[in-house]
Amino acid sequence: MKDNYDRTVQLRCITCGDDSSFEPNEDKTYIKCTRCGREYLGGYDELVELNQETINNELEDLKNEALVDLKADINKMFKDAFKGNKSIRLK
């Protein structure tokens, strides 16, 4: 199983879909998309809220990936534990 499942989700402008043209103030309480001019007066929190579906999809993918890795590791552990035992067979 991997040691690190870090992911980065690119937040997108809800109006134009751009993910790299944001201009925040110092404490990120205000963000403006420089491509379309959309202003997020709620700042970073508003942008995260509007991108929640994308974040949830990425989280679901991460859960599935971790589950597949965990199943593979458990199967390998059992196979290694019972290797050479003629009475027990694992598929």
Task: Give a written overview of the molecule.
- A hairpin with a 5-residue loop joins β2 and β3.
- Strands 1-2-3 form a three-stranded antiparallel sheet.
- 5% of the residues are buried.
- The mean pLDDT is 91.
- The chain has two helices and three strands.
- By secondary structure, it is mainly alpha-helical.
Assembly form of the protein: single chain
The total of beta strands comes to: 3
DSSP helix fraction: 40-55%
Principal-axes geometry comes out as: rod-shaped
Number of helices: 2
In short:
This protein has 91 residues and is mainly alpha-helical. The protein has helices at 43-50, 52-81; strands at residues 22-24, 31-33, 39-40.
Spell out the blueprint of helices and strands:
Layout: E1 22-24, E2 31-33, E3 39-40, H1 43-50, H2 52-81
What are its keywords?
three-stranded antiparallel beta sheet; 42% helix; mainly alpha; 91 residues
